[in-house]
Amino acid sequence: MQVNAGRVVLNFTGNNVLTTVHTEENVKLIQHQRPANASSAAQDLEITASAIDFFVAGGNRLARAETVGAAQIDMRPKTAAPGHTLVTAGKFRANFDNMGQLASVHGAPNARIVSQVPGERDRVSTSNTLDALFRPGGGIESIVQQGRVAYTDGDRQVWGERATYTPANQMLVLTGSPRILEGGITTTAQTMRLNRATGDALADGNVKTTYSDLKAQPNGALLASSDPIHVTARTMAAHSSAAMALYTGDARLWQNGNVIEAPSIEFDRNRRSVMARGSPTQPVSTVLVQSEKSGKVTPVKITSDQLSYNDNERKAHFERGVKARGGALTISARTMDVFLQTREQANPDQPTAGPGKIDHIIAKDQVEITQPNRKATGDQLVYTTSDDKLVLSGGSPSIFDAEHGKITGVSLTLFRHDDRVLIEGDNNSPTVTQTRVAR
Predict the structure, then answer these.
(1) Which of 14, 259, 363, 415 could form a disulfide with 287, with the two C-beta atoms 3.0–4.6 Å apart?
(2) pTM here?
(3) Cα torsion through 355, 358, 359, 365, rounded to 10
(4) How far apart are the C-alpha atoms of 346 and 221, rounded to whole Å?
């Protein structure tokens, strides 16, 4: 260790044992780290201040040091890696180990850390206090900042009450109502973990994300409004880009009246696309609306094991155990494609608002239609909302009701507005009617 100063005052006890050293006038303390093994994390350290008081233990060992007034710490890597880190605070208190190596530094108030790399924007974090721990002969073990922590990394801004940074894995952990803002996306949680090397962001506990600054897409449907899109979940993971995130644990995504709930939801803001996956105990739940021929608008709740949706196609694809319930009608199938009207079609007066409206539905494999006192089955269903008509085909579709019994044909058409049923056959498969006669 080396100290330079314009003036030095040494104080001794009665036995001529050195106890304190007061330095002033452009004081500079330099400690060259000498790690036992080559380590890219090892850093040389330089502390500058107008004055520094050193406290000596046993007359020959540096125990601690305190700056007088504002001071700065400059840390530079031992390797040829570019960049350095500047730490400033109203005052620093440093503690040294038995070998005279720097062990810890406490800085307060107005602590500030600036990481500088040529050609890149500075990474800046501020707080009321900071505490840095050092490895013997190496670099920083960890830095803890507390009190109104604010961190800026390019377009990413983060706030919280406590932040812990570990250089070994470049992980920044925030607690105390942390909040992150990036590109019009705001996320809050109980705990956040940010990887400064990869840009990954992980949030845990009461996660809520709001996607703002959205442009309206009149040709879109489910998520085409300019209104914010909200997502809540237990955890969130965003890799590389904040625009793509995976939410798990009671995830819920909504915009206006359009709602998707599932154990996990993967959302891509730029493509306005959703991939939702259910579990054996909790299926994916989606709420849409349909406009019947009479003009009545009713909500339609669709449950399934999996949902994929892309707003450019205006198609929601449901797989396995699909069940759609709307009014007195229930449709179940193995797969179902729900095509939505554009926002302009669904809401001509307000094309950027209102829920997504169903244009038509195509269901396949083990299709079943259930109405009060009526049930129909087939391999494929096409339902159009404009004429409120359901057409069943494939696998000898049939319909059963308490009044007319069971009817089977090549195709079966149900008109919901007047309860008419049209059954068609051909020469190879004529229409068959089975009725029950009361005796």
Answers:
(1) 259
(2) 0.84
(3) 160
(4) 8
